[in-house]
Design a protein that fits this description.
232 residues; alpha/beta; Rossmann fold; Arc Repressor Mutant, subunit A; 2 domains; five-stranded parallel beta sheet; four-stranded mixed beta sheet; 8 helices
Length: 232
Amino acid sequence: MTILILEKENEELRPAVSEAAAGETLYCFTDEEALLSFAETHLFQVVFLAAESGGDRILQLAKSLREMIPGVNLILSAESDQYLHEALRLHASGYITGAVTCEKVREELENLLYPVPSGKPVLRFEKGPEGTEIYANGEPVLFRYRKSGELLSILIRQKGRMCSTGWLVEYLWEEKTGRNPRSYLQNIRADLIRSLSRYGLEHIVISKRGHMCINMQAFELEGEFYNGQKKT
């Protein structure tokens, strides 16, 4: 489980979370922009926010994190219930009032609103009204380019075998296009890795000297491509 912490003052959250979540991965921040920048390229399941350190800015950050990952567990802390109403509107997992202690943090972690999956990440393929839909740990994977999802599907069909750039270009663009397909493939690859990184899956894409493949051992596969074959 990966936990993000934002705390500018008092420094109560960090030691309390460190003790209550011993063995988990923690990232601590004192700046909202730094946390948001980190969140854009990393997978995380729980965020502790000290509301007293920023008020409206912290609530806006919480909203941005919720939009980024709808199933993230937001836990706010404050001296009073001043921000409780806003926390409820954001569907926060928890709210800590008064002094932050290990016991309070542990209680929140034991009662998360959104369960944290354990083991390998899960990729699931489902047939939707507009084509194949891809989910990572139950969350829809959103790509900038439609062909990014196609590239992922092609690589999975190859079951970990290396595919040359030329072969991928021919497979993805059977018809001639006005743009440079090799350059476009680089953009698609970057989009694929960027999108997967939000779910901790960026490492499954392996590129070596004009070739690309998927590390099939790094995730569980469900749905349309069970064991690398289309499920009937």
